[in-house]
Amino acid sequence: LSSSNTPSQTKKESTIIGEIVDVASFLTSQAKQDTAAIRKSAAVGNALGIYDTKAKKLYLVGRTELNTSANEKLLPYVSVRVFVIGKVYSKAGVSIILINDIGRSIK
Questions:
Q1: What's the whole-number average pLDDT of the chain?
Q2: Pairing state between β 82-91 and 14-22
Q3: Mean pLDDT of 73-95
Q4: pLDDT at 39 over 80
Q5: Is 74 exposed, middle or buried (0-12, 13-18, 19+ CB in 10 A)?
């Protein structure tokens, strides 16, 4: 396996500061997403993610609990800057975070 195909894991938890986005709309549209559109998209099962505006990097969000969706943790924070703490895994140019803590960012 080449190094780009080998999953990497942080040695410790990482903190990401950014905004909640609808992943599909974020990748296919230049328009700023509004709160209602993000919530509607999540309601029909589309994945939400976290966009780190400083690093200009999109993170997918993985489930850490079997009976909850990753979106459930993100929905209360749509339209506000958030901090997210968790383990980050990256492979083939895609990064995912397993959230241990999330809240409003004051930065």
A1: 87
A2: antiparallel
A3: 93
A4: yes
A5: buried
pTM: 0.84
SS3 labels along the chain? CCHHHCCEECCCCEEEEEEEEEHHHHHHCCCCCCHHHHHHHHHCCCCEEEEECCCCEEEEEECCCCCCCHHHHHHHHCCCCEEEEEEEEEECCEEEEEEEEEEECCC
Residue 9's pLDDT is what?
55
Structural tokens at position 7: 């999953």
List Cα–Cα distances, 66 to 21, 63, 71, 73, 88, in angstroms: 23, 7, 13, 13, 19
Pick from 27-36, 40-49, 80-89: least confident: 27-36
Amino acid at 17: I
